[in-house]
Amino acid sequence: MDSGPEDGDSGPGDPEDAGTPTCAPAPGALAIVEVMIASQSGSDRGEWFEVVNTGSCAVDLSGLELGSPTTDGAPVTHTVSTGVLSVGDHHVFALSGDPAGNHDLPWDYVYGTGTRSDVFLGNTGDVLTIAYAGIELDRVEWSSADYRQGATLQYPPGAAYSANCDISRWCDAERVYSTTSGTYFGTPGAPNDGCS
């Protein structure tokens, strides 16, 4: 599996993007459905998460604010610079675009800059938010007991997106997506598997 933008993903200059009417991110239009909190122990550039368009029009992701506080509660955010997400499609946000660091993850957008000011997902418990114009659109919060290292937390398909703030409804992924420098479980860019 090659790392980098997923096949069929339209860049900012793509004619398909230019001709598709879009909406700004709004409550009820985007949901976080998959989170790789810890791909490995120690230094970890393999963090990523996935957002799905649950609305009725393509969403212009420019200006979307990704956020997760530091361990002392200080806010850390990243503002997305580009991207269009079609209705029902999944968008993979990666901490790193380096195939060695992200384990050949097929990503759509890299939010990490390789500095300590990056948005990091805390292993001992944290919260991830997406917002637009200062209005929170979705959030997921977890503790160290809620996930398995090397596997994403997934929200089951078919479940109400309005209930994804309840981490007890999520489960560990069981499908392998990469064996680069280890074995990693998840469904980046694709619908999640169900939770038993």
Quickly list its features.
Immunoglobulin-like; single chain; 6-stranded mixed β-sheet; 4-stranded antiparallel β-sheet; 17 strands; globular; 2 helices; 196 residues; mainly beta
Coarse structural class: mainly beta
User: Which regions have little confidence, pLDDT < 50, spanning 5+ residues?
Assistant: 7-17
Helix content: under 10%
Beta-strand segment tally: 17
Q: What gross morphology would you assign?
A: globular
Approximately how much beta-strand content do the residues carry? Answer: 25-35%
Rg: 15 Å
Task: Summarize the structure in short.
By secondary structure, the protein is mainly beta. It contains two helices and 17 strands.
Describe the structure.
- The chain is mostly beta strands and 196 residues long.
- The chain has one domain: Lamin Tail domain (Immunoglobulin-like).
- 4% of the residues lie in helices and 32% in strands.
- The chain is built from two helices and 17 strands.
- It has helices spanning 15-18, 99-102, and strands at 4-5, 22-23, 30-36, 48-53, 58-60, 65-67, 77-79, 84-85, 90-94, 106-107, 109-110, 125-132, 135-143, 153-154, 171-172, 176-178, 184-185.
- A six-stranded mixed sheet has the order 11-9-4-3-14-15, with no helix packed on it. Strands 7-6-12-13 form a four-stranded antiparallel sheet, with no helix packed on it. Strands 2-5-8 form a three-stranded mixed sheet, with no helix packed on it.
- A hairpin with a 5-residue loop joins strand 16 (176-178) and strand 17.
- The longest helix is centred in the N-terminal third of the chain and has 4 residues, at 15-18.
- Residues 7-17 have low confidence and may be disordered.
